[in-house]
Design a protein that fits this description.
single chain, alpha+beta, BirA Bifunctional Protein, domain 2, 2 domains, seven-stranded mixed beta sheet, three-stranded antiparallel beta sheet, 11 helices, 10 strands, 20% strand, binds phenylalanine
Length: 342
Amino acid sequence: MIDEIEKIKSEIESFTAREAAEIEHFRIRMLGRKGLITNLFKDFKNIPVEQKKQTGKLLNALKQLAQEKVESLKKEAVLHTAERTEEHKPDLTMPATFTDTGSRHPISVVRDRINNIFARLDYVISEGPEIEDDWHNFTALNFPENHPARDMQDTFFIEKAPDIALRTHTSSVQVRVMQSSKPPIRTISPGRVFRNEAVCARAHCIFHQVEGLYVDKNVSFADMKQTLYYFAREMFGPDTEIRLRPSFFPFTEPSAEMDVSCNICSRKGCPICKYSGWIEMLGCGMVDPNVLDNCGIDSKKYTGFAFGMGIERIVLNKYHINDLRLFFENDIRFLKQFEAIL
Ligand code: PHE
């Protein structure tokens, strides 16, 4: 046992460590419940009586040596850590590095605002596919077979599948809603739409719409007018006026276009409204009975109104932007200018 004690003693003497974990590992190896020294104490009772006195002394000294070693190593480790933190102390005089956080896109901000206004009128949001078939985008909506909108000029058809195209409006979503639910239906469908137009400052081949639909018994043109009037005032301010001009859409009869009063010049005339005092805002009308019937809703029992607007147009007018292409470039210098409108 004395040899054993000597061996452990020299191990203790030569051991060094600076990390707390290493020191703890060493302590357990020596003094833990199954540690080397603890084991020697267990064996102690088996040694011959005449050796007990001397061995006991050495053993106690060994235990003390180990304990002292652990204590002194721990102290050193604390000092060492303090030194290291001193080295890595932040330099408070150093200039800060800023992280660019980006900001929300004005199209998303305005879209959410429109959604919220209609949510207050109990409209639910519905979404649908951007790749549509001819039936949902045109036929169900009463577009005649030879309507120019079906033409290759306006619609992006998907190669080798003449029946499949990128949707040209989100009215296609409303067709799906009418097919799959029963009146009363109150829904708005925001989304991206595509038209084959040459890209320039005032036109783009991709833009965003919010279209709305209300179908129930006895829904009237007056209901539509009041709903859109409420929307216009919530969106553009309490003094906003609206006017409806007769128009044509294959899926509504009668159809109208709605203008809102220019809130830059209060209808006095300015470059934004091209000196007319009015700004074109959306298309609307009473859902054509053919459309209701196409979608499985009894047009003798139910009537409805629909409307659709381009989000870009609203953002352009509200924030006086003169180039549509800016919306698609994701230039942070452009987007940053809208941080405050959140
Ligand atoms: N779908 C039409 C468009 O894309 C807008 C519209 C919707 C007009 C509903 C009338 C009724 O221009």
